[in-house]
Write a structure and sequence with these properties.
The chain is α/β, with parallel strands linked by helices and 301 residues long. The protein folds into 2 domains: 84 residues, lambda repressor-like DNA-binding domains (434 Repressor (Amino-terminal Domain)), CATH 1.10.260; 197 residues, Endonuclease, Chain A. The chain contains 12 helices and 8 strands. The strands form 2 sheets. The protein has a 6-stranded mixed beta sheet, sandwiched between helices.
């Protein structure tokens, strides 16, 4: 089962540095509410789509929270579903407005592929992020120099200007670990990610020292999967699971690949990845041992 976390406020559109963390949470909340209202009234998706001059698939996308909402469409659906209470209508229409609010990271749209946008939205709204990394230090824990070196390897044809924008985006993402309330990060790193000198010896040594500092933050937990541990439960590659605020919102599983990202969303699939992540936490060294291991690797680097 997934880790149990305290539920947040369902309509909490988290704020980062005074900017909206993104529309994902209000979209999911509003979509789920519209689905329940439709089902309670016994209205089919086809009938609902006809009322808003759309299709069954449009209603499905709205209820899944996969895009923004037109206020007129939401108002027409509330009327169809016999929602007459003015306070309830006002609340749901406010959610619709929040669901259309651009996220701060859309400023970096030129360096954010479409397939990564769902993950960025989830990351910025997250209560908890669990991740396993094999080859790299997690993006949220990278120093600027390490991030620059890693991004240069991944985007060898990028201009210096593009590379700096990618670095700026990555560093901006890290602010979720410093905000109030901070996102909790629980990362399991394969020892290979710490032994591979990305950016050279000086960059890697600075990165290791940064990890030691980050481990001191109460919202950050880092575990290391040592070589001597042998095989483990996630040998297929890196995994990220995001828990969003609100007990009714589904967890987001993200599997990043070279040129795309996958989002397994069937409940059985999400459960499978939670099982793997929880097994990794048992198989890896204790978080209490992480600073000692990092100091030892630092001495050997």
């Amino acid at each position: 089962m997934g880790a149990t976390e305290p539920a947040g406020t369902p309509t909490d559109n988290r704020v980062l540095g005074g900017l909206s963390a993104g529309p994902m949470v209000p979209r999911l909340v509003l979509g789920a509410r519209l689905r329940r209202l439709r089902e309670r009234r016994g209205v089919t998706r086809e009938a609902a789509g006809h009322v808003i001059r759309g299709s069954r698939s449009k209603i499905s996308r709205m209820e899944a929270g996969r895009h923004g909402f037109k206020l007129r469409d939401v108002a027409d659906l509330l009327t169809l579903y016999d929602v007459t209470d003015e306070a309830e209508r006002a609340t749901l229409l406010t959610l619709a407005e929040e669901a259309n609010t651009p996220a701060w990271w859309q400023y970096f749209n030129d360096v954010v592929p479409a397939w990564a946008q769902t993950y960025l939205a989830a990351e910025q709204a997250a209560n908890l992020i669990r991740c396993f990394e094999v080859q790299r230090v997690p993006a949220l824990l990278q120093t600027p120099e390490y991030a620059r070196a890693a991004l240069r390897l991944a985007h060898s044809d990028a201009s210096p200007e593009e590379l700096e924008r990618r670095v700026a985006l990555r560093l901006s993402r890290q602010r979720i670990l410093r905000r109030e309330p901070a996102t909790r990060l629980w990362a399991v790193l394969d020892e290979a990610a710490l032994r591979r000198p990305v950016g050279g010896r000086a960059t890697m040594r600075a990165q290791l020292r940064h990890l030691i500092e980050m481990c001191r933050l109460p919202q950050v937990t880092v575990q290391i999967m040592p070589f001597l541990g042998g095989g483990h439960s996630a040998e297929g590659g890196p995994i990220t699971i995001v828990r969003l605020p609100g007990s009714e919102l589904p967890d987001v599983v993200y599997l990043e690949q070279l040129a795309t990202g996958l989002y397994p969303d069937r409940p059985a699939d999400i459960e499978c990845y939670w099982d793997a992540m929880n097994s990794l936490a048992v198989e890896a060294e204790s978080p209490d041992e992480t600073p000692t291991i990092l100091h030892r690797i630092l001495q050997e680097t």
